Amino acid sequence: MIDELKRILKNSPDDEVKSLLFQILLRINMLEETDQYTEGQFVTDLKKTYNDFLNYKRNQTDKKNNKNYKFVHILFGDSASGSLKRALKEMESQDEEKVISFSDMFSIGPVWQLHDKVGLNQRYEWIKNHLIFDDDYIDEYQYNFNNTTSMINAIPKNTTIIVWVGANSHEQTALRYVLYLLKDNKYDIFLMDTTKQYKNQFNIPDTDCYPLHTGEIISEKLRLIYEKGRMVPPISQEQREKLEKEWQELSSTQEVLRVWENKEIKSVDVAYYDDYIINKAKKLHTERKNNDFMKSARLIGEVIGYLDQYIGDEFFEYRVRHLIMNGVFEIEGVPKAMRFYSVRLKNN
């Protein structure tokens, strides 16, 4: 119950929270300054305020979840879903088209049996024990994940589903997971290939830089991609079965790192990028002409800046800490977050 209250307050608009606080303070004031207002009335009114607010927020959630939409968009990441929501609002389509978002990074962490409770528990434990996130994210991780899968499983029949994916292991892994969730349903499912659409619509050659994932595309361009790319046919049953089978293969592995190579998801060893991190540190030391400590955030920024994969800075920060433990780096500061400590390569 406490967790539900935290979620309700966290997701409530400021004016609702201020109104609730005002009602509570008003009754405290009446209790202290009015003889006719008894403690029994105060407790009764406080309970009524509590129950009214709780029922209002629950009904609000039920109405939102039970509303029938013409289209449901599924995206992978808060940035991508936020940009699409803005685009749909500009198109005045927000009341007809729902956005469901996974706030997760599917290129890292175990996906073994993720479609079952035991797999989600394993993924949660790995994330909690290896990556640095704020406590709220960790505490709410399993609830948010289950809530998202529940929304996907509750999509009404005859609803058109659009899954947004780019050419990266994060979105491609998540795509296969979602299609597996929907395997017993006969929806029309469309894939919005944001990498392909971005290159084609904005005339970007393969040799030029382009967004590594959908979350890097601004809402204005995401709207154009949607308007011009929505005429693609739905994926065939054969395509769906192929991707579902690929999920079954992925979810039978224990690796915690995936990359996108030759249009395929490749599971690799957790230390896959360790040498790359070390070489970037050597490069920074050479450029500085010294072996002084450098902020770990600077090193991780250098690593990500030249990478053609979407992995996430949390994973590379974890690997830097691992290299510290293995004696590759020296540390100055406390490794509770990358901004709090500095590293340098040990002199051999």
Number of domains: 3
Derived from helix and strand composition plus strand pairing, the structural class reads: alpha/beta
What's the total number of strands? 9
Strand content: 5-15%
User: What is the count of helical runs?
Assistant: 13
Shape: globular
Low-confidence segments: none
Tell me the span between the first and last alpha carbons.
Answer: 55 Å
| Average pLDDT for all residues | 90
Major sheet summary line: 4 strands, parallel
Provide the gyration radius in Å.
24 Å
Strand and helix order: HHHEHEHHEHEHHHEEHEHHEE
Spatially, the strands of the biggest sheet line up as 2-1-3-4
Helix content: 40-55%
Description of the structure:
With 348 residues, the chain is an alpha/beta fold. Helix 7 links the parallel strand 3 (160-165) and strand 4 (189-193). It is globular, with a radius of gyration of 24 Å. The model has no long low-confidence stretch (mean pLDDT 90). The chain has helices at 2-11, 14-33, 39-66, 78-90, 117-130, 135-153, 169-181, 194-201, 219-229, 237-250, 274-288, 296-305, 313-325, and strands spanning 71-76, 97-102, 160-165, 189-193, 257-261, 264-268, 294-295, 329-333, 341-345. It has three domains: 2-62, no CATH class; 69-267, no CATH class; 274-345, Orthogonal Bundle (Arc Repressor Mutant, subunit A), CATH 1.10.10.
